[in-house]
Design goal:
CATH architecture of the largest domain: 2-Layer Sandwich
Radius of gyration: 30 Å
Shape: globular
Strand content: 15-25%
Distance between the termini: 59 Å
Bound molecules: 5-amino-3-(furan-2-yl)-1H-1,2,4-triazole-1-carboxamide
Number of strands: 24
Amino acid sequence: MNNEIKAVIEKLRLQLNEHSYRYYVLDEPTISDAEYDKLYHELLNLEQNYPQFISKDSPTQRIGDKPLDGFSQVKHEIPMLSLGNVFTDDELIDFDRRLRDLAEINEIEYSAEPKLDGLAVSIVYQNGKLHQAATRGDGTVGEDITANIRTIKSIPLTLRGELIPAKLEIRGEVIMPRSGFTKYNQTAELLGEKTFANPRNAAAGSLRQLDPKQTAKRPLKFYAYSLGVVFENLEFTTHIETLNWIQSLGIPVNNLNQTVQGANGCQKFYEKIGKLRDSLDYDIDGVVYKVNDLALQQKLGFVTKSPRWATAHKFPAQEAVTVIDKIDVQVGRTGSITPVARLKPVVVGGVTVTNATLHNEDEIRRKDVRQGDSVFVRRAGDVIPEVVKVILSKRPKDSVEFQMPTHCPVCETELHKIEGEAVLRCPAGLYCDAQRKEAVKHFASRKAMDIEGLGDKLVEQMVDEGLIKTAADIFYLKQQDVSQLERMGEKSAQNLLQSIEKSKHTSLNKFIYALGIREVGEATALTLAQKLRNIQNLSKSSVEELKELPDIGPIVAERITQFFSEEHNLQVIQQLLDAGIYWDEIEVPDENTQTLAGKTVVLTGTLTQFTRATAKEKLLKLGAKVAGSVSKNTDYVIAGANAGSKLTKAESLGIEVKDEEWLMEL
Ligand code: 9MJ
């Protein structure tokens, strides 16, 4: 009887380990999370009833029950070295040339790897069982964090496979995924606990917990990137082979690693990963190149503290520390009042940043941001730079809480806060110069009327000079009005008038979008154009009628009728039409071509046949709704190359995953 139970327990452990491997290492789970939990609880139950069969490497035994008093020290048998750096193409070419000269060969093959921005750790397995884990520390001596490392579910407690060395040290990076970091901070904030400035600090803080139960709650991951001590003669000849072997043991290895040829291959890899950077679910601060040939690595050897055969090629940092000189507020197109931090100029992500958004009053209170504060500023991709966290220890003694203004800084109308909304608004609408400017900027922008050459600065100048008050005035501008503006010659004035003329031929959906009705984005404008066919129908539709249309809810319907109930707006529309704006009859999609009507689609990964924007446009035309994140309401996920967490989530929810070809065929 007992033997049978023991056999069942062992089988469950094998099954659970197999599923963890499929989930964390292969990224190809074959069961749902719920099914995994069910197996896990079966095992937990049996182990509770038969504690004599509990073993330390059971998947149920990841979390130790006693907090530690402190971390003991661990000496690394082989020092954990750091990497040299290159920052520019020239430095990369020098690095490669130096190695080629030393090795006396023409071209070197490298293992090229994203450089994960987490914490370097060493994990030692003895006879295939996780034995000890340590931080890098100063490279020679680190801290024993075995209990915390055991709680990371993607790190196997038992290695897979037949030929496992008696002792095997794996080195790699512990990171906190961005998605997990955001969620963690949100929860911590609700509970009034410490939040972290970035995923790297969060990972470091999590590994430094004395109570492994706390670490277990943190969403940490591990990726291996090299071997340390190995008691066995391995017969690999390249670094990539060792990484593949490490992965076969059940340890996650980054799936973007690849071999490249020479400095040129390195450069291409750097650019490729640079483009992917923002779409990844983890922070990277560059890429790493390592000579792939292990014999050549040995020949090249080391300089003082780093291997000569490897280097890190850094990306511009996405985060920097600077000081807030002043907090201003800006008035948006819809009157929303946004606080903006004016910063001491600082380079973030390769660009000098002087402003960062503070979003709204609630955000300012939440982060307790004040004038004079030293802050972490983050700028990722094309997103507006934002203040992530205040460094309280550097706060000036005389600092005071920031107060939002009570009146519009531009038109001095008293500001309103609508219940349930986080933002303060200036209710003056187009009577407020700031909103007038924003409305015209929006009207002229690329996705709206697309008036080439009519940029933000020029609009501001024209409104300030009293040349235009509304979007319609653009079409009544005279050459001499324009050419007298500062920094505007005859020629540019002429060009501008030409592009204004050209913009008169538009499409109904773009025109509706250009009007800047609150809550009416591109997709809604397209629906309105397709269903109502002209402006008259749209302006006369009631809330009830609008709500009948696909994807138009009560709030949007309300905003639309409100917009058309204002005499001023009707006048501007009439002036625009009188100026000669026209569009071709809108193509009403045949029900048969609306193959994706009512379906919600999420795009992820790198597309090669379309830009994101065109793919989105095509999907909208096919009747689909395009969402930013995967949920159980998602019908399809279209995954391009190197899709990450969205793809994993889709698979775990059993959502149909399609590729670009599928979209092309549709
Ligand atoms: C990171 N951080 O991703 C190394 N690393 O190799 C990769 N770090 C490394 N390799 C030798 N991919 C020392 C550090």
